[in-house]
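Input for the complex:
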Amino acid sequence: MNTLSGEIDHVTVSDHLSLVKVKVGSSYLSAVVIDTPNTADYLHVNNQVKVVFKETEVIVGKGDGHRVSVLNQVKGTVGSIEYGELLSKLLLETEVGLITVINNTEAVKSLNLEKGSPITGLIKTSDIMLSV
Amino acid sequence: MIELSLQKKLLFDTVEAALELVLDIDHGSITTLYGKSGAGKTSLLKMIAGLMTPEKGNITINGKIWYDSTKGINLPPQKREVGFVFQDYALFPNMTVKENLLFAQDKTGDSKRIRQLIDIIELGDLQHRRPGLLSGGQQQRVALARALVRKPQVLMLDEPLSALDYDMRQKLQQYIIQVHREYDLTTLLISHDISEILKMSDKMLIIDNGKQIAYGDSKEIFTRKNISAKFQFSGEVMSIEKQDFLYIVTILIGRDLVKVAVEGSDLENISVGDQVLVASKAFNPIIRKIR
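Predicted:
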């Protein structure tokens, strides 16, 4: 899994849900969690948290400026690619740090990526866990 | 309440080290002792039962001193009010269930107690049979009843259920919780089964090499509040298979086998047989009505 360290920048609470914006590296990642500052005492601005998401939950877009309904869009470049029969593994060097991605080989190949290609990593807020 | 402070040199995995424990265990609680084999769990029970003598320390049960090295007090096992159940039932094969219970009773014992135990642990239909004709679970029920015949204050269970199948274990757990409440016991349980620990015990003590690693509420120790995942289970790793860049890990959770696909670096310190936490965001699972 990808585990990145960050600091809580903002917490938006609505009933039982919170949207937590975390400063990671030079950018931000947001996670929606079924907790509020009342139920989880780590949910406060300036607290250090780990942002956790699986390699299979990252979508890779070529270039930037993608108009898709994904809040987390981090820019970077391709560090390495390894192709497998069904799945391929990419290492992305992004503004939030190194991210490992496992995606369909066919989908990865269709992007014609090579080392250094500019990409955007897209991760849904509901796929990100926070841990302390 | 059990108050104890114990010191004894023991052999841990071929290395001699001192068991050193200071503990207060609430009256009426069920406490699980958890740790690797050879960590000192059984030795602790034996010292409380008087089957092993510490080098130094004291054991006070509900205000009564059972052992005190400075005062030279060391009650023999038969004077300590403990009931012991082991994984091995050790019933007398030539006696019926009821005779086994009667034999465990001291001279002052009343027959009402045995009738009551036969009732609670539902041994009525089995009481005139010999152990050889009983299943493992039934024999363990008899062993549990026998441990309670002499009205112990402390019930000690040394992996009593580990040889039983899932359904039988569930039943025995119920009987244990029932007698624990009925007789206002303080119960010490050795178990490796996390679901059993969560279900049965109020507190848990984790020990390693004779030393306390953690002591506290078992649910707090096992359920990780420090990760925002709302879909959390603990289970045992049954197999790990490589698949492209992923590993398919099969995990036994309760009586269900689940599969989790993870990347190789997640498995660095995980191997088959390990207990693991399985966690996911609450947004991923779906539910469907099956009944």
